Amino acid sequence: MTAYWDAFFTLHRDLPREGPGEPADVAWAVATAGTAPTARICDAACGPGADITALRAAAPQGHVTALDKYPHFIDQAQRAHGTDPAVTLRTGDMADITGPFDLIWCAGALYFLGITEGLKTWRDALAPGGAVAFSEPCWFTEARPQEAADLWSGDYPAMTDAKGIDARVRAARYRTIGTRKLSSAAWENYYAPMDARIAALSSGDTPEMQQVLAEARREAQVWRAHRKSFGYLLSVVQPDDL
């Protein structure tokens, strides 16, 4: 299994993003949450730090604390943002956030903890009036193409629709303030650089690398073929008692 993960991170190392997204997503979430320019923001599971610039722009007098459990992602983010005194970068588990934060931003990673479980864990890390913004794989249509269903049954069998996401939010005693579907441009911000990396590594010299490349090609192909059926839903939520 180590050989597989070595191949996986060879593919993903130094990509600009570790998931779909664009600055407009951050701007929408901040506006929806009513986050102040002086906000203390946590970028949970920040990957290589693709959203830090947008988060800083959203809170120009605030501070961004970005963390990820993988040191090489933090090293990459450090190269881009390490000289900014309003950014703190550290290796750490998003389950261990302490705060207080006015906004916890989590792009495409909360499902590792579980929506309900993660939101409960983060409740004490939120300042009064604080909010969580997270993007989550989501079914957009009742008809689910078999190819897409097969992909997600392996990758994320707990994937649900917008109502199901909201139910998990409410189970954590939060309320949903607003939702937004990530755009095709947000997805291509992730997949286009990945396509180039796949092409560069296409002669991969191990079975594990060929497996990783095949999985990445399939993931992008399925989304491009069935993007109307599924994608990411960005939700802004707050605890009921805040």
UniProtKB/TrEMBL annotation:
Xref: SUPFAM superfamilies: S-adenosyl-L-methionine-dependent methyltransferases
UniProt KW Cell division keyword: no
Swiss-Prot/TrEMBL keywords: Methyltransferase, Transferase, Ubiquinone
CDD domains assigned: AdoMet_MTases
Ranges for domain Methyltransferase: 41-130
Gene3D superfamilies associated with the record: Vaccinia Virus protein VP39 (3.40.50.150)
Matching InterPro entries: Methyltransf_25 (IPR041698), SAM-dependent_MTases_sf (IPR029063)
One MF term in the entry's GO annotations: methyltransferase activity
Biological processes, Gene Ontology terms: methylation
Pfam families registered for this protein in UniProt: Methyltransf_25 (PF13649)
Protein name per its UniProtKB record: Ubiquinone/menaquinone biosynthesis methyltransferase
Organism: Roseobacter cerasinus
